[in-house]
Design brief:
The structure holds two protein chains of two kinds. By secondary structure, chain A is of the alpha/beta class. Chain A has two domains: 31 residues; 155 residues, Glutaredoxin (3-Layer(aba) Sandwich). Chain A is built from six helices and seven strands. In chain A, strands 5-4-3-6-7 form a five-stranded mixed β-sheet. A two-stranded antiparallel sheet of chain A has the order 1-2. The N terminus of chain A is likely disordered. By secondary structure, chain B is mainly beta. Chain B is built from no helices and 13 strands. In chain B, β8 and β9 form a beta hairpin. Chains A and B meet through α3 and α4 of A and loops of B.
Chain lengths: 198, 152
């Protein structure tokens, strides 16, 4: 009996500790709601220089003075493919407003990527990150720690401002999937109107 | 009554930690007579929250779930039957995909020639798949397994 009682005390203590842990975790998560969904905001976008499928070399530094939209993709990524036609539409609408759009394809052969470019009629630069080094640089620290770093940004969209700062970064969230890129569009509209809010 | 031994293969399936495999395959051993045919059943389990593409995909770029059996010792692979897939409707887009989630069976028919010698052999196969959950899509992966086949 005594033994049981002690066990019950132990259970109560354990429950209290667990509850405290849950509350602490909840408060911690509530205190940083954007850590997972909108990471790296305000940080300088890692510079890169990558070959495009068109044979040209594209450098982020060369896009200084433009707003830049980057989408990390692979051809086997269903969510990336769902966004591809909407990226083309976005490019057609915003390209003339000084917005550069890039797909950064991660660790694939160009022949495969060429097929995707043809299928969706992509007319903006599609860049080849064949070793995943650029994608790795864009993997937010602490996000999806069990995943290979170059896979973390897959299906993500970023908006980089004219000073090279990240102003929008949406990691994949299929429960609130934004194939039509409304978040990217809203951010671009605000930036193009001169709204400095992050 | 065929001898049934449950063997679990939980080899690396989509992450650095094999204990955390996205897909596992359980294989029942099969006992079959020489000169007859039988069916091996793979019990596939997809980790909760994940789905893998179905065995046929509408989008040519997606990686369908596929099964390849190696040439076995007097084992002749026949038809592979995948279960019906479930529809995955993508929120915020018009796209609908066919996927597998939870647990399902893949059935592999095979024949054993009459001149096959008695004994147990391991028949190696590989399941190829590409998995996603609501936060990430994992690179295509292959899970190898062995089907113990006892020929009488």
């Amino acid at each position: 009996m005594e033994y049981r009682s002690k066990r019950a005390d132990f259970r109560r203590t354990l429950k209290a500790l667990l509850l405290a842990g849950i509350i602490t975790s909840t408060v911690s998560l509530a205190g940083s709601p954007n850590r997972e969904n909108q990471p790296m905001i305000g940080e300088s976008a890692p510079l890169f220089s990558l070959p495009g499928v068109d044979g040209k070399t594209y450098s982020l530094a060369d896009a200084a003075g433009k707003y830049v939209v980057i989408h990390f993709a692979t051809t086997w990524c269903p969510f990336c493919n769902a966004e591809a036609p909407h990226l083309q539409k976005l490019y057609e609408e915003y390209g003339k407003k000084g917005v550069a759009v890039y797909i950064v394809d991660v660790k694939e052969e160009q022949a495969q990527v060429d097929k995707l470019v043809d299928k969706f009629g992509l007319t903006f630069p599609v860049l080849m990150d064949t070793d995943g080094a650029v994608s790795t640089q864009y993997a937010p620290e602490g996000v999806q720690p069990d995943l290979e770093r170059d896979a973390v940004p897959l299906a993500s969209n970023l908006v980089i401002d004219r000073e090279g700062k990240i102003r929008f970064y949406s990691l994949l969230n299929t429960m609130a999937f934004d194939a039509k890129l409304t978040g990217v569009r809203e951010t671009l509209d605000r930036l193009l109107e001169g709204d400095p809010r992050p | 009554m065929p001898l049934v031994v449950l063997i679990t293969f939980a080899l690396a399936g989509g992450g650095p930690d094999p204990k955390d495999s996205i897909v596992t395959v359980n294989v029942d051993s099969v006992t079959v007579g020489a000169g007859t045919s039988s069916t091996a059943v793979l019990n596939v389990r997809v980790k909760k929250g994940y789905h893998i593409q179905a065995d046929s995909v509408a989008d040519e770029f997606l990686i369908p779930t596929g099964l390849e059996m190696e040439a076995g010792d007097h084992l002749i692979a026949g038809k592979v039957d995948f279960p019906p897939a479930v529809e995955f409707r993508l929120q915020g887009a018009d796209d609908t995909w066919l996927v597998y989630d939870g647990s399902f069976e893949i059935r592999v028919a095979f024949a054993v020639p009459g001149d096959a010698r008695e004994g147990v052999r391991m028949w190696r196969g590989a399941l190829r798949y590409q998995a996603c959950d609501d936060r990430r899509c994992l690179p295509p992966d292959t899970l190898e397994f062995d089907i113990p086949v006892s020929v009488l």
